[in-house]
Amino acid sequence: MMKQMLDPELNPVLDPVLDPVLDPVAIAAQLPRGKAPPVESWQPDFSGNLDMRIARDGTWHYFGSPIKRHRMVKLFASILRHDQDQRYYLVTPVEKYAIVVEDAPFQAVAMDVHGQGREQVLTFRTNVDDEVMAGPDHGLRMTIDPGTEEPSPYVHVRGRLEALISRAIFYDLIDLAVEELAGEENQFGVWSAGDFFPLGPPGSIL
After folding, report:
1. Percent of the chain residues topping a pLDDT of 90
2. 48-54 and 96-101 as β-strands: parallel, antiparallel, unpaired?
3. Which stretch of DSSP H or E encloses residue 171?
4. What CATH number matches the domain at 8-101, 1.10.357.140, 3.90.190.20, 1.10.10.10, 3.10.540.10?
5. In angstroms, what CA-CA distances link 33 with 36, 65, 128?
6. C-alpha–C-alpha distance, residues 79 and 99, integer Å
7. pTM for this prediction
8. Quick one: which of 93, 97, 104, 141 could link to 50 by a disulfide (CB 3.0–4.6 Å)?
9. Hey, what CATH class is 106-200 in?
């Protein structure tokens, strides 16, 4: 299924790195048309480790070379799953291959703002064209690197998968942030779809 590159339409001359193993045509044939694949319900046996890596900037690499075809990246992204063992897998009904993800598997590359204040709604688009609305079903969170003190903001996409919010979008997010009482402490954060998402104590970001 993920073992050979068979589709001439995908032009293996332009993507020779994909020749040895993956068969996107066979993968696509197993996916339900018109809706997201139910990867969380598929439980195939472990098939092995795949030499595939998603870099922190969202670029997918196979055997050390970037995958250039956007629709191919989107296909693989549609069958990506993050399991309880904290590993990432490409999953079909009959196969399950482990891959390496340096940070989050996706990048949030665009944000739309609707309304303002507590009525504000934020929507995000990822580098693989997923669109999510921050709110009860898609939370925002922030981590701070203890060594560099660099902030890394994330938005939940689906399952256990998140998108790292790009630096440019993060600056836009900071412009929307307000100070609110969260628990017993004041927090700097943003509202979306009725939820307040803390980004950190006032003065701690940037």
Report:
1. 66
2. parallel
3. helix 167-176
4. 3.10.540.10
5. 8, 29, 17
6. 12
7. 0.83
8. 97
9. mainly beta
- Round to whole Å and give the CA distance between 16 and 6: 12
d(CA 155, CA 107): 9
Residue 161 token pair: 């998968």
User: pLDDT-based confidence at 19, cuts 50/70/90?
Assistant: very low
Domain range summary for the chain, segments of one domain joined by +: 8-101, 106-200
What does 100-116 look like in DSSP terms, one character per residue? Answer: EESS-SEEEEEEEEES-
The dihedral built from the CA positions of residue 11, 12, 13 and 16, taken in this order, carries a sign that is positive
Q: How far apart are the first and last CA of the chain?
A: 47
CA distance linking residue 25 with residue 19, whole number of Å: 12
Assign 135 a pLDDT band (cuts: 50, 70, 90). Answer: very high
CB 91 within 8 A of CB 42: yes
Indicate the burial class of 5 (C-beta count within 10 angstroms; 0-12, 13-18, 19 or more). buried
Q: What's the CA gap between 58 and 161, in Å, rounded?
A: 13
Buried b / exposed e across 164-200, counting CB within 10 Å, b at 16+? bbbeebbeebeeebeebeeeeeebbbbbbbebebbbb
